[in-house]
Amino acid sequence: MGSYPGLPGRAPSGISTLLSADRRDPFLSFARGLNPIEQFLFDHYVNVVIPLMRCNESAIFFAQRMIRLWVPTAITESSLLDIILLAACRHLSIAYRQGSQGQQRIFQQLTFQYKSQSLHALRHAISAEMPMLTDSTVAKAIMLAYDELYVRDAKMLKHHVDAAVEMVTLKGGPQTLGLDGLMEHFLLNLITKTRGDLELSVRTPWEE
C-alpha cells in the first residue's frame, strides 16, 4: 500500500487500524494508495463522522446521500480525499482532548498537514481555473469553510464562505452545482449556519 509524503506509515500506539479488506477500499477507486493510518482515518470518516453530520436532514437520509454521492466522488481526487482525511483528523483531535495527549498531538499534527495541503490545492485550482471553476474547486472551498465552522474560527469561516459564494455566483448560482443537489445543500446549510450560529453576514447575489 502506498504512503503519502510526511505521514506516518503506521498508526499511533493504542489505535487499531486492522480493517477488513472491504473496509480498506470499499469503493475500489481511491485516487492514491492509503497507508494504514489513512485507511483508519477514512474508515472513521465514513463510520463515525458522516453519521454525526445532518445538515438539517434526517441523519439516516443524509448519511445515505453522503455515502452514495459525496464519498465516491471525493476519493477519486487526491485533494478532495485530503479534505475527507482532514475532517476525520479534526474530529479525532477533539475526541482525544480528554484522553492521551500523545495521540491528540498526532491527530493535531495530521490535521495541520491535511489543512495546509487542502489550502494549497484550493489556491492552485482557483488560479488555474478562473473564471470557469469546477464543482471540485467549489467543493474544496465549501468543505474548508465547514472545518472553520467546526472550530468556530469566525475570521477564516467568513473568508471561505465569501469565496465559495463568489465561486458559485460565477457559475450561475447554487442550482448549477452537481451531485444531485447535495452540493447546493452543503452550501445553503453552510450559509445558514454562518449567519445563525456565528451571526456573520453573508451576501448572496443570487437572492438579490
From TrEMBL:
Superkingdom of origin: Eukaryota
InterPro entries recorded: Fun_TF
PANTHER family cross-referenced by the UniProt entry: TRANSCRIPTION FACTOR (ACR-2), PUTATIVE-RELATED-RELATED (PTHR37540), TRANSCRIPTION FACTOR DOMAIN-CONTAINING PROTEIN (PTHR37540:SF5)
Protein name: Uncharacterized protein
